[in-house]
Amino acid sequence: MALPKRIIKETERLVAEPVPGIQAVPHEDNLRYFDVSIHGPTQSPYEGGVFKLELFLPEDYPMTPPKIRFLTKIYHPNIDRLGRICLDVLKANWSPALQIRTILLSIQALLGAPNPDDPLANDVAQRWKEDEPGAIATAREWTQTYATS
Amino acid sequence: MSEMSDDDFLSGGSEEDFNDESMDSDFEEEDGTQYLDDKDDRPQKKAYEVDYSVLSEEQIEKAQSDMIDEVHIILDLTPENAAMLLRHFKWNKERLIEQYMDSSQRVLEYAGIDLSGSNKLEVKKVPGFMCDICCEDDDDLETIALRCNHRYCTNCYQQYLFYKIREEGEAIMIQCLNHKCKVLVDPSTIERLCTPEILHRYHELLNRTYVQDKQNLRWCPAPNCENVIDCGVTPNQLQEIVPTVMCSCGHHFCFGCGSNDHQPCPCGLVRKWLKKCEDDSETANWISANTKECPKCQSTIEKNGGCNHMTCRKCKHEFCWVCMGPWNEHGTSWYNCNRYEEKSGVDARDIQAKSRASLERYLHYYNRYANHEQSGKLDKDLYIKTEKKMTMLQSASGMSWIEVQYLDAASKVLQQCRQTLKWTYAFAFYLQRNHLTTIFEDNQKDLEMAVEGLSELFEKPTDQLANIKVEMMDKTAYVSNRRVILLDTTAKGLQDGTWEFTVEF
Q1: How far apart are CA B45 and CA B226, in angstroms?
Q2: Does the model's ipTM exceed the 0.95 cut?
Q3: pTM of the entire structure?
Q4: Which residues are in the UBC core domain (chain A) (predicted)?
Q5: Mutate which: B134, B150, B168, B180, vs A, most A CBs within 10 A
Q6: Which domains does chain B have, with CATH numbers?
């Protein structure tokens, strides 16, 4: 099946003008499947880490949002053990005008600003609320252990 | 006898079968309970009856457009904008008007409506334009933009609407494709861009949200029925009343919770009961049949083999399975209990009996409830057979179609009473024991006996059915009368709050 023009354009632009701290490379055998890496934002417990994600553009894209998942283990209240992400723009607030690049930026922003009030990983969120310094320390530890090569 | 005169009257008019059919179904709508009320000039409203009306899809649409007309005149808006505002305010007209008078600007903004821009949707070809969604940039690409001027190609818009309406079931909150823009796609744009099939779905969704938003409306839950019931009973009245309604499709259901007719049991108790049955009934049956409790610590014990000398795993108490007394009193008579009447054994059995009593009590009610449920199902099969019987009876006895209708009436009454009986057991389970409860149980017993009597008549072979016609009609009238009495007194008790329950609901 021919790849829609939109996906081709987006891919071209991702390569030509990459977003700082974000990389997205399509698989050669499946141009809808991307290997993504996001650098942990500075001033956050994820600083210094490089997080790998997978991204898939479903058949209906851009009418439906891309499917994204963290592959690197991460300690974050809105990301669960399977790497699934709780982010409004990936679900109800998706709009076809959003793009891969804007979504990845939103995820990077989520790393910089965890939201324990809308949790996906309940235990992490609980800790984040009750013992924020401790939770941040754990997040930093995990970043060191899993997200640095 | 009123029943006979009914029948005479009906058979007198039997030349026009079609008219009779509609007339007859009118009679059925009153559940046969009206036979007795027919003697009065006007049937009195019973305590368990509620006021309601059945609305068709057209009537629902008309109700919406009436309200839209009213608001668009009062607030001086186009009908389309009035409709969008009403939908945004969940059809709460008063609140909308009040807030609009307060600050029209804020309300419009909040609802994603902009009055300043022109509402005219223009399909334009813009040279050099590239659609942000599909990245097409042909010069003859047709494009549109809402008031917000976020321009996309018509094709993408159509796909977007298709997706929102078809896949997401969204109708009133479809926003501009731009993710930051809160402007709503107005109905006329939708009408213009969508295929008839999608539009049909769109209107269905609009009606659905209307019914959901209005507290006094509820869809008839029967399969393939598209009617709506309009009833004024609010959720906080549900402790005092069981608002049972009947759709014109023939389905009886509770307006409060949408489930099948569960008179006389209020919705709260129904929920509790069903939950309890789901959790407990089978387990409880098994426990009752296979276990006893340790006389000392009340742990439930299953004896799965071995001798009668039991040692409780939990508290190490040693006792006899047969007499439940302590084992040491058995002395040397191992494996054999001849001490049944010993006081310690009796005491132990007493305690056991108490802890079993609550379980047994539940099972008592549950088994009767389940029994009526089962019988109800069988009666439904019977009803299907009834029609056959009626035809057979016509040819066997030479009766006319209208003359065998008493079978149909009896069958319907039977089913309905089974349904009621079933729920009386759930109701009784939660009642405190007092004299009102005793009266209730007497009523329940009367109804139950009458129902069984009628049920028995039904099972007679066809050739006898003609001879017992009068008896059957009498019984039918009696049974439905018993049901009315039971429901009426129960409903009055609920309204006056005289029932004492063992639980809060």
Answers
A1: 28
A2: no
A3: 0.66
A4: 2-148
A5: B134
A6: 7-43 (no CATH), 60-211 (3.30.40.10), 294-341 (no CATH), 357-496 (1.20.120.1750)
